[in-house]
Amino acid sequence: MTHRLNAQDVSFGYGGEDVVRHLDVAIPTGEITVIVGANGCGKSTLLRGLVRLLKPTTGQVLLDGASIHDLRSVDVARTIGLLPQSPVAPDGISVADLVGRGRYPHQGWFRQWTAEDDRAVASALAATGTTELADRTLAELSGGQRQRVWVAMTLAQETDLLLLDEPTTFLDIHHQVDLLDLLTDLNRDAGRTIVMVLHDLNLACRYADHLIAMKQGRIAAEGAPSAVVTPELVTEVFGLDAQVVPDPVSGTPMVVPRGRHHR
Amino acid sequence: MTTTTASLRQAAPTPSHRNGAALGIGLVVLVGVLAVVCVMSITLGTRGIGLGAIIDAFRDRDDSVDATVIRDLRVPRTLIGLVAGAALGLSGALLQGLTRNPLADPGILGINTGASAFIVTSIALFGLQQMTTYIWFAFLGAATAMVIVYGVASFGREGATPVKLALAGAAVSAGFYAITTGVVVTNVDALNQMRFWQVGALAGRYWPELERSAPFMVVGILVALTLGRSLNGLALGNDMAVALGQNVARTRAIVVVSVALLAGAATAACGPIVFVGLVVPHAARALCGPDYRWILPYSLVLSPIVLLTADVIGRLVLKPGELQVGVVLGVLGAPAFIALVRKRSLAQL
Q1: What is this structure's pTM?
Q2: CATH of residue B104
Q3: CA-nearest residue of chain B to A48?
């Protein structure tokens, strides 16, 4: 197992106390890693730190063995793509235009739009099933379509690693499953390494090869979901009393919470 | 599978560069319009002048009244309108891109108020009478405002974010406005000089103003025209811009410097002319969409068209007197802007 992206003893924060503290993490290449944890446990902060949106206060993030802050930003952008939690787009932008902006790190002063860019955009649209939306504006689309278009944009960037911050948050259950299936396709077919933050523990167990459970800025447990997800872990990480049963569909762990009224 | 891929590839429309040809032609047409407006600006006015007189004035160096009017009044006035118009429009487009705020214009960063405050203070302190001398103070004021605003907004972990820039701009504006009011209330000379400068006018600005301010604006224009790609990145938000490999801090700094050059020099040359920087980028956006690689050149050409047309209208409506261009723009610009806002959603840039 190789780990192109890893962090050693990193701490991240926003000026005050560090949110992520002295954490070591290695992202398995070619797998789907899902980060879970309670609100405020630092999972989004860790993800942002891994793509150099935050500067570590201790330790360093390594990409292919080199400190990510020492690499040229355009080189990093050709290797790691990011879909932020709530991305913004200019008004009136068309889907094709937006996806085309993912080509930014591949262009330069003397290398404007080329056939290679056309190919990358077309295949990103095709992979996400948004080809027929290409001429529409983003504002006309439904939430599920829009999220697919954003994924298409990050795909057009053609990076080996793709990081997504709660990509399913604003989607209904159908579109959540749809999107996670799409990401799994990208992982299985194109060998892309995927790291994402998810809120739904059951979907996380189902789609993750590698699960990272965080608590108060540290990693509480990590590994294959079937190996790490136990009632004890759920209690430790979420402070929730729960039963863990096999998912009837996938066989992965399924967390069934026990609220105060169901004991 | 191969056929599917092939058909998909063919069906997939490509981004805006496909209509690049149409946008390019549109730009050429606008340059033509601008040329016509320039000729109108030289020939029309209190004293109507024939087209042939323009050539005569420069070829023969004759001393007829027409030639003098053209050489010493109309041509420099037109050139200032041309350069300052372009500078104001571009600075508005840059600021709207930087702050992702559809209402951004040079006023939002305190540039106008900074220039005004320095001018009245210099008049009160040194009793400046010459128009040519206060260009420097106006420029200094604009640059000072810009530096303070950017410096204040840069505090904190995320640097000069759009919201912090706008807030710092509002605060600095208020501060400079207080200084201006304080000086003007206690100093009649300053008030009188100020009244004229404050409106914004092309009249009474001739070769010396042009020679002093144009170099700054030309440099600013050249820098601004290189920023389209970077502004397209910034339009996707800070996180996405970084993820796409952009150096966001550097882009912001370059934008701020070129805005200081453009708006500072333009304000110094013709007073705080509003509306051009606010409205023209929206008009450009309506014509060519959200791609800053087109918005910038469109703003560059549209702005002097608007400014010079307003100036010519101002010369004609009150003949033999003149209405200052700032007034014309305010009167015509307000309804134009309302129409634009009603037609398009300006919520997000």
Answers
A1: 0.85
A2: 1.10.3470.10
A3: B239
